[in-house]
TrEMBL record:
Annotated keywords: Carbohydrate metabolism, Isomerase, Magnesium, Metal-binding
Protein name in the entry: Beta-phosphoglucomutase
Organism: uncultured Rubrobacteraceae bacterium
EC numbers for this chain: 5.4.2.6
Enzyme kind, highest EC tier: isomerase
Lineage: Bacteria, Bacillati, Actinomycetota, Rubrobacteria, Rubrobacterales
Names of the cofactor(s): Mg(2+)
Family the UniProt entry places it in: Belongs to the HAD-like hydrolase superfamily. CbbY/CbbZ/Gph/YieH family.
GO function term, MF aspect, one: beta-phosphoglucomutase activity
Length: 220
């Protein structure tokens, strides 16, 4: 539990701002099934959720060249973006973000998602003007689970790790935030709460309606 009110709150995108697995899963099925790989929910959670596209394609389709692999995940992401218009924010998110802004706290987005996806998802959630900055995977030397994305966020904010608070739904995202020394809240939208706790979060909530989240940004 943080000992003081954070100066900035840092959010993952997929699974944290919105439940996106229901869109990502069928789009992976579209590109992997023709290549002989069957994807169900269990396979998705174990082998795909929270990982970068490059890692997924490299591990599941090791025979492809870099260019062929890029074509696979670009086709997958194009299909995802077509579906993204139907996304809705997690319960309580919009109210929580308004409270953050009302308190004068900074807010950043730290994501492995391609920039094109961010450009599709944020307007669908009506959040395109909310975040003070966005850290994308192609802006850092390594993606989650490496701490590099969150280290970049701290650098932009000029803050120490304990002056920020992160929200993540995946083990790889938690590893990234915790690896950067940032206290992290687990959002149990894609993984079991016990798995998130084991990964290193200090708190697990189902969504942003949990009253304990308000206590984290209230002056003490």
């Amino acid at each position: 539990m943080p000992g003081r009110v954070p100066k900035a709150l840092l959010f993952d995108l997929d699974g944290t701002l919105a439940e996106t697995d229901s869109l990502h899963l069928p789009t992976w099925v579209e590109v992997l099934l023709p290549r002989g790989i069957e994807v169900d929910e269990a396979f998705y959670r174990e082998n795909i959720s929270g990982r970068s596209n490059a890692e997924i394609v490299r591990d599941l389709l090791p025979g492809l060249s870099d260019e062929e692999g890029r074509e696979v995940f670009e086709a997958k992401e194009a299909s995802f973006r077509e579906r993204a218009v139907d996304l809705e924010p997690l319960p309580g998110l919009l109210d929580y973000l308004r409270e953050i802004k009302a308190r004068g706290l900074a807010a950043g987005l730290v994501t492995n998602a391609p920039g094109e996806n961010v450009g599709a998802v944020l307007p669908a959630l009506e959040l395109q003007d909310f975040f003070d900055f966005i850290v994308l995977s192609d802006e850092v030397e390594a993606v989650k689970p490496d701490p590099a994305p969150y280290n970049e966020a701290l650098k932009r904010l000029d803050l120490a790790p304990d002056e920020a608070l992160a929200f993540e739904d995946s083990v790889s995202g938690i590893a990234s935030a915790v690896g950067a020394g940032i206290p992290t809240v687990g959002i149990a939208s894609t993984q079991r709460p016990d798995k998130l706790r084991k990964a290193g979060v200090f708190m697990v909530v189902e969504d942003f309606t949990d009253p304990e989240l308000r206590a984290l940004i209230d002056a003490r």
